[in-house]
Amino acid sequence: MGATEFYADNRHAWLACGTFARYSADWGDYISFAERMRKKADKEGRDLLLIDTGDRIEGNGLYDASDPKGKYTYDIFKEQDIDVICTGNHELYQSDASTREYTQTVPNFKGKYLASNLDYIDPQTGDQIPMAQRYRKFTTKNQGIRILAFGFLFDFTGNANNTKVQPVENTIKEKWFQEAIREDVDLFVVIGHVTLEGPEYKALFKAIRSQKWDTPIQFFGGHSHIRDFVKYDSKAYGVQAGRYMETIGWMSIDGIQGKGKNKDRKDHETRASLSFNRRYIDNNLFGYHYHTGLNETTFPTEHGKNVSSLIQTSRKALNLDHSYGCAPKDLWLNRAPYPSNDSLLTWLETEVIPVIAISPDRKDVPTLAITNSGAMRFDIFKGAFTIDTTYIISPFVSKFLFLKDVPYKSAKALLPLLNSGGPVFEAAESKAQHLAPPEQISIHSDIIATSLPSKPFFDPLSPQHTFLSSNSDEPDLIPGYTTKDAGGTDGDDTLHSQISFYRVPNCIQSAISMPEDEDPEVVDLVFVDFIQPWVLTALQFTGEMYNKSDVKVYREETLTDLMAAWIKENWQHDC
Ligand SMILES: O=c1ccn([C@@H]2O[C@H](COP(=O)(O)O)[C@@H](O)[C@H]2O)c(=O)[nH]1
C-alpha cells in the first residue's frame, strides 16, 4: 500500500538562499528536489503532490527591489510544478500586486490555482469575478486517489479595493461549496493561507464532516509563520510549513486506496487504517541530498540548475548585494526581549524613528510617532546591510501620516490602547493582533531557550538529522526550530538547539521634540499608514472624533526608504 505525500512551502519571495546555512537552498534546488522525489515516488507507486499556501510576494529584494515589483519573480515561481496553490494576504495589500496575481500567477498555474473565497474586480467592467476556479477535482496518477481540493484565504479585511475576500462562514453556505462537499471522493484537501487553529478551518472541517463523516481530510495552513500540525479527528489533520522558505513541510497519508483505479472497492476498504505523518524539512542541500540519496554532483537537475542561475542573474541585475552600511551587532525582532539593547524594536524606537519621523517644516513641534511592530519582519545580523536586507526587514510601502494638534492627554493614551488590543478593536473588526508579527497569532507566551549554540556539523546518517560538533559524543546542536505540535516533538527533520522567542508589543512609540519641563498641550500624532484604522478607532475611544479626512501625509518617503537612508548615514563604515 503506497502513501500519498505532499510537500508544502511558504516563501515570501525568498527564492534565493536563506540567511542561514541551515535554510540556504534556493528555488532551483527545491525544483531539483521535487523532480527527484517525484521520480522516486513514481517508481515506488506512491503519489507526490506539491502545495503552496500563498504569500509568495513581499519581504525580499528579488520581488520588492524591481520596478514594477516582481519583474523577475513571477517567471521564477512558475518553474515549480505545483499541484494546488492559493492566495495569501500579501498578494492583496496593493492593487497592482493583485492584478499581477490575476494576470500572471493564476494563468501560470492554470487549473491548479484555487480561490474558494476570493474574487477579483475586473478593472474594465467593474464586474466581480472569481480570482481563479473555486475548487479542483482530480485523480492521482499512481494510486488513483480521487481528490477534491479547495483553496482559501483567512477572513482578511486589509485588501486593496480590486479584490473581495468572502468570509469563510459565508462561502460555506454557497451552492457550489455545498455541492462540492457532497461529491464522492477518496480525500478532501483543503489548502489555505489560514492558521490551522483558526475559526476558518474549524468551520470548514465542520461543514465537510456534516456531509462526509468518514472521508479523510488533509488541511494545509499558513499565515502565522510557524511549523504546526493539528488533529481535527482521526481522519482529518492539518500541517503548516513555517515561513520564508525556511521549511519544506512534508505530509504523508498512508492507507488510502483510491477508487480511481478500482471502482468496485467499498468505502470501508478505501480508508481502513490510515496513518498521517508530518515532517518539517530544513530547506538546505544537506537535507535534499539525504532524502534523495544523491550528492552534490548527482542531485541537481538541469531544470533546477537553470532556475538557480536565473535567480543569480536577476539578483545581479537588481544589485541586491550592494551594501548600504555595516550593522554593528545583531538586532533581534523576537529573539531578544523588548525593550533591550539587542532588540530591533528598541533600536528602531530610540535611534531610527526619532530621526526619520521628522517633517522639515514641523521639526520643533512636540510629536508622538507610532509604528506597528509587524512593520518589521526579520532580524538584522551584524555585518553588511544590503539592498536585499532592507526589504527583508521591511518590504512595505507604508508612509508616515499625521494628525495635527492632538490633545496630549488623548495622544498619550493611544499606545496602551493599541497594545492592550481590547474590545475597542473587536467591534471595529480590526483585530489588534494584526499589528504585530504574525508568529504571535500562534505563540502566546515567551519561549526562553535553555541551550546554547555551538559550531555546525551535519550528520546525514542520524534518523532525525543533527548538526553535530565533530568530536563530541553528545549532539552539540546549532540553534533552529524545535517544534512541539499535536504529533509530539519528533516533527523537525533536523535536530537543533532551541531559539528564544519573546512576544513584542503591537506598537512602539517615540517621543520627539518634547518640552523638557512640562507636558505639551497638543502634539503632532505621527503614525505609519497601515495602522490608521486602529489609530482612529482608539482615538474615538479617548473621546477625539477624528476621521480619515483629518489625516495628512507627514513624509513622502516610505518607512523602508527612510530606514535605508538612516543606515547609509549612521552605519557607513565597511564591514
Ligand atoms: O503594509 C503592511 C502590511 C502588513 N504589515 C504587517 O504584516 C503582517 C502580515 O504578515 P504575514 O506575512 O501576512 O503573515 C500584518 O499582520 C502586519 O503586522 C504591516 O505592518 N504593514
Automatic annotation (TrEMBL):
CDD domains cross-referenced by the UniProt entry: MPP_YHR202W_N (cd07407)
Q: Which Pfam families match?
A: NadN_nucleosid_C
Q: What positions does the domain Putative 5'-nucleotidase C-terminal occupy? A: 330-536
Xref: InterPro entries: 5'-Nucleotdase_C_sf (IPR036907), 5_nucleotidase/apyrase (IPR006179), Metallo-depent_PP-like (IPR029052), Nucleosidase_C (IPR053828), Pesterase_C1039 (IPR014485), YHR202W_N (IPR041823)
Entry's Gene Ontology cellular component terms: cytosol; extracellular region
State the Gene Ontology terms under molecular function: hydrolase activity
From the Swiss-Prot or TrEMBL record, give the protein name.
Putative 5'-nucleotidase C-terminal domain-containing protein
